[in-house]
Each structure stands twice: as C-alpha cells, then as structure tokens.
Amino acid sequence: MTKNIELGEYVRPHDGETLSGDVVLTQQENGGVFAAVIDVLGHGSEAHEVGVRLRDGLSAWAAASTVPDPECAIATLHDTAKGTRGAVAAVAWLDFGTLEGWVAGVGNARCRIFSDKTKTLEFSDGVLGQRVRTTRPQALSLKPADVVLLFSDGVTSRFGPRDYPSLGLDPAPTIALNVVRRFGKCLDDASCAVIRCK
C-alpha cells in the first residue's frame, strides 16, 4: 500500500455455502484509496455472481474517475444492479495526502470509525437496483492511527474498542479477518473492508 494508508478485506460465506453474496473492493485510485462492501440480497452462487458484477462495475468506474464522487459511486452501483435481486452497499474514498474523503451507502451496510471516539455511520433505507433515496455522503477527516471499517449486516454492529483492544495496532488485513471471525454471524454472509491510517 502506501506509507500512510493500509487496506484490508475479508469475506466469509453463510454456513453451508462455498460462495458469498457479499463482495469487497479495495484499490488505490487517483491519489487515494477506494473501498466498498457490497451485500447482495440472498446467499450462494447466484448472489455471488451479482456481487462480482457490481464490484467489477464499481472498480471500472473508480479507475476512470478523476476524483471519485459519492453520488456517482452509488448511481453506478444502482444502475448495474437493475434487473438483479438487488443489494446494499457502503463505499468510501480517502485522499493519500490529506486523509480526507467521504463515505456513502444504501441500506443496512455499516461504517464504523475508530478514532479518539468510536463513531457508527448508518445509511438511508433502500435497495440498489430497485429503490434508492438521495445519497447523503458524510465527510471523512482522519488522522494517523484512525481506522475505518465498512461491513455488511452479517457482522454485528455491537462491538467496540473493549471487544477488540488491538484494533488500532493490527495490520488492516488482520483487522478485517478478526472483525468477521469475532463478530460475524454464522447464518449470514459476512464481510469487512478496512482503511487504516498509519
């Protein structure tokens, strides 16, 4: 990654499934990092195929964007999801130099920021490909040692620093793995994307 930002991701399918309807995207783009968690409705191979399609479409859009825009990111996912079973998602972008950016989402995907205080961001109701309200992105302004987690509803939202004391110290891939393993629900796909400022 870079000297000041580290990315991590981990996905675990629903018990009894080999493929997950959750997919994760983490990539460097345009002087920053772009991350997304996409949770397709349902489980198994059909949901996975839809998730890969949405992830690939979002990845291509991010690579072509001069400065990734939250409204356009959600619109890209929404358009790509039309005619499918639908999905929810959380997306974030962070500038390498300033550690500033944004997070946006649709449905019950989550964003949690671990800084001096822990902050949980939730998004408006909706289903990509079916009905989406106006996107209300939230600004990010981070500093070294801050950690941003994007995760699906297969991960419980009721955990904090006391439940994972080394979260601010572990590498981003380890954080993603541990969040899903420790706080993931067995009867759902579970996924996590991590942006860690160093």
The averaged pLDDT comes out at 94
The profile of the biggest β sheet is: 5 strands, antiparallel
The chain-level structural class is alpha+beta
* CATH class wording: Alpha Beta
Query: Which strands sit side by side, in order, in the main sheet?
Result: 1-12-11-6-7
Estimate what percentage of residues fall within beta strands.
35-45%
Extract low-pLDDT stretches. Answer: none
Q: How many domain units?
A: 1
Helices and strands in order, then pairings?
Blueprint lengths: L4 E8 L9 E8 L2 E9 L3 H21 L5 H12 L5 E9 L4 E7 L3 E5 L3 E4 L4 E2 L3 E2 L5 E4 L5 E5 L20 H12 L6 E8 L1
Antiparallel strand pairs: 1-12, 2-3, 3-4, 4-5, 5-10, 6-7, 6-11, 8-9, 11-12
Helix pairs in contact: 1-2
Structure overview:
With 198 residues, the protein is α+β, with helices and mostly antiparallel strands. The protein has one domain: Phosphatase 2c, domain 1. It is 23% helix and 36% strand. Strand 8 and strand 9 (131-132) form a beta hairpin. Helix 1 runs antiparallel to helix 2 (70-81).
Short synopsis of the structure:
This protein is an alpha+beta fold and 198 residues long. 23% of the residues lie in helices and 36% in strands. The chain has one domain: PPM-type phosphatase domain (Phosphatase 2c, domain 1, 4-Layer Sandwich).
